[in-house]
Amino acid sequence: MTTTTIDLTAVTNNRVYGNNATYLTARSTSAVVDTYMTVGQTTGFLVFRAPLKFDTSSIPDTDVISQVNMNLAVVTDTSTTDFDLAIVKYDWSASDPLAAGTREAIYDGILAATADDNIWRNTNGIDVNTYYTSGNLSPAWVNKTGITYYGLISAEDIAASQPAGAEYVTLDKTTKVPQLVIVHYSIIESSVSGAISSIVGVVGKSTAKPTAGAISTLTGTAVKSTSKSFTGALSSIVGTTIKSTGKSLAGALSSIAGTLASAPIWGKVLSGAIDTIVGDLVRQTQKIAAGGITPAGTVIKAIAVSMTGAISTLVGTLTKQISKAFAGTISTITGALTKMTGKILAGALSSISGTLAALATIISSLTNHWRTLTIKAEARTMSIVSEDRTLDIDPENRKLATTRPDQEHL
Fold first, then answer.
1. Residue 137 carries which DSSP code?
2. Omega into 405 within 30° of 0, i.e. cis?
3. What is the pTM of this model?
4. What are phi and psi of 404, to 5 degrees?
5. Alpha carbons 102 and 287: distance in angstroms, whole number
6. Which residues share a beta bridge with 121?
7. pLDDT tens, residue by residue, 185-196
8. What is d(CA 213, CA 208) in angstroms, rounded to the nearest whole number?
């Protein structure tokens, strides 16, 4: 930040006033210009206004002006009635310098001009030969390439309030001359080389291109500063990162706090290990999930294709998930196995409970009497054939029949 103090540009005349027995005429028509700098009005009627100008061309064109104030001092205070001394934004360059031929335009222009953001001050309690500083004025009004013009006028004059006594002050223009104090700073539009130890305030669009090296801390919001890829590690992001990573995230994400909304953030495969998933994982893995999945909660339609490898534990119901054959050994099936294995079961079945068990008892009993058995199934009947006997089983009619030469019945 740089503070530049600019003194009033010295001119011969700084006062223009109206003089008439009728107040409104004195207020609307100029009569005299002279070398004093007086602001206010009095009975009679006299109405005083003062044009000012400052050469502000020393402020760099590329700098940003953050604050403007005006310092004024009075040499005489003749106000029995106190008033606000206002500063107006009035470019009187077309009538510069103030003289008899230009006085009316300047006099009328000050009255019609727009008030600045703040007044200088009220005359109550004012000391002579002492600088007083105005409130903050408009930075946009300062002309960085030339002269900045102002006007001084009484707020009572602006309001057309007829004076009942003396209410004016005369300003110092020789010793404590009017000053414009301007605070400004430069913007870096090109590359910065070396280290920037500290940036205080706002950096606006200063790094439209990549920032090389490490940024140890960002306090506040970084908006669209890095519209391209991040390289290296981001140790911490506080707040919300929105659309910063429109492409793949490479490497490991150690932690995601909050809600990961919108599944299309990872529309493709996640590679590597996902330590923990809390909540529902819905349609996140539309392709094969490799490795072990030990989820807490529900995995819904997540694996539409074959699962390869070992499934250590399934808690709950596995319904119609595997429409093809099981390969390998199934150590335990608890509950009903219904049409899940439409093909041949190879190997030994250690235990069969239910309908198949009754048939097994019959066959076991027959082997005690018949030495050799052959089982034949046709349509809805089953036949068990020995060397000299045949047992016909008709489950639909609940009948058993045996035949042999001597018609021995079971």
1. B
2. no
3. 0.52
4. -160, 175
5. 85
6. 85
7. 998 755 566 666
8. 15
